[in-house]
Amino acid sequence: MRSLSGGIPVTGKLDVPPQNLVNITAPLGGFLRSTTLLQGMRVAKGQIIAVIENPEYIQLQQDYLDTRSQVTFLEKEHERQTKLAAENVNAQKTLQKSLADLESMKAKNSGLQAKLKMLGIDAAQLKPESIGSTIDLRSPLNGYVTRVNSAVGAFIPPTEVMFTIVDTEHLHAELICFERDIP
After folding, report:
1. Contacts with 8 (C-beta within 8 Å, 6 or more apart), sequence order
2. pTM higher than the cut 0.85
3. Which of the chain's termini has less CB crowding within 10 Å, N or C?
4. C-alpha angle 45/49/52, rounded to 5°?
5. Mind giving me the DSSP string for the chain?
6. pLDDT tens column, 99-135
7. C-alpha distances out from residue 15 to 100, 144, 167, 169, 174, Å
8. What is the pLDDT of residue 4?
């Protein structure tokens, strides 16, 4: 260990690990209805950073509610067919058809539920009277907004980066020093 008598000229950049840099996009696209973000603002994890509107959100919710009710109906129908088959009243083909219909509808329902989860909509809490055309985009981490690439009223395709958020907790400097300056 020794003290340095002067400074060493270096160049470099400040960087963060990839898990601390997030690009925010709209999952299915839509119109940006509101945002309060400005470059340099601090955001907290889970904070609403934008509201996106798209009629497709309504259709997804309607489809999910429809398939959920169809699953309930097909479960009852399968129970009826199972009872009838146990008593040899109906053909095995009818029982197999009811089971295939039920499994197919359950798969469709699970897919729609996954899409709703991706949008931030809780499928378990969804009711016909709570269907909406907007979704809230939330910050996935604590950090600072480094880029704002969209304006209110603009249509945002799913591939366009709307905001970039950086968590500076693991900020590090990458410096380039000439070999002759190191000694």
Report:
1. 177, 181
2. no
3. N
4. 130
5. ----SS----EEEEE--GGGEEEE--SS-EEEEE----TT-EE-TT-EEEEEE-HHHHHHHHHHHHHHHHHHHHHHHHHHHHHHHHTT-S-HHHHHHHHHHHHHHHHHHHHHHHHHHHHT--GGG--GGG--SEEEEE-SSSEEEEEE---TT-EE-TTS--EEEE-GGG-EEEEE--GGG--
6. 999 999 999 999 999 999 998 899 999 999 999 999 9
7. 53, 13, 10, 11, 7
8. 67
- Contact between 6 and 125 under an 8 Å Cβ cutoff? The reply is no
